[in-house]
Amino acid sequence: DAGVTQSPTHLIKTRGQQVTLRCSPKSGHDTVSWYQQALGQGPQFIFQYYEEEERQRGNFPDRFSGHQFPNYSSELNVNALLLGDSALYLCASSLVSRVFGANVLTFGAGSRLTVL
Amino acid sequence: DAKTTQPNSMESNEEEPVHLPCNHSTISGTDYIHWYRQLPSQGPEYVIHGLTSNVNNRMASLAIAEDRKSSTLILHRATLRDAAVYYCILSPAYSGAGSYQLTFGKGTKLSVIP
Prior knowledge:
Chain A contains no helices and eleven strands. Chain A is 0% helix and 49% strand. In chain A, a hairpin with a 5-residue loop joins strand 7 and strand 8.
């Protein structure tokens, strides 16, 4: 059973450029979240997509945008890259539960973005 | 979101039990306690979660204090593959509508000594 897959695994960009990262959720999952992890820090929530809509957003500027496709896969776009955007970008998927309770996320290995 | 406090680092000898503590004195009645771990060069991996009672699964055990203000993740026999950063996270009960996030701290870096 394939887990969460992300591409590319590594990429290098220069300041001002734009980047698109891709994520395929675990089979059977319908919700995708994106997290940013700076070196030595825990992951920080960017936003979450469900039913092709952004449902919740963390404290990130509008330069960060996303999309979810009908097959539940997702893209993260970052415009006007800054040096501070250098980080590991993690995608996580889950299955929306109609039952009140705990939810569990499955993470991918991430895309390592370096901005020069 | 309610916050957690964990030691920055811990060491354990291989094949010995490991007890990773977490304090969460401001936990609310509907907050679940989650543990995730992150191995080097990988994304976080779910370990275990609980609400009030102690929980066991194939990876670990979760012991929750009676007042719920602290919890302990127990690895029964540490192996070299358990060397990772362990995150203790509180999350409100999920209420649907696709809205769910985890707030990570810095976690505890566990080193396993052969």
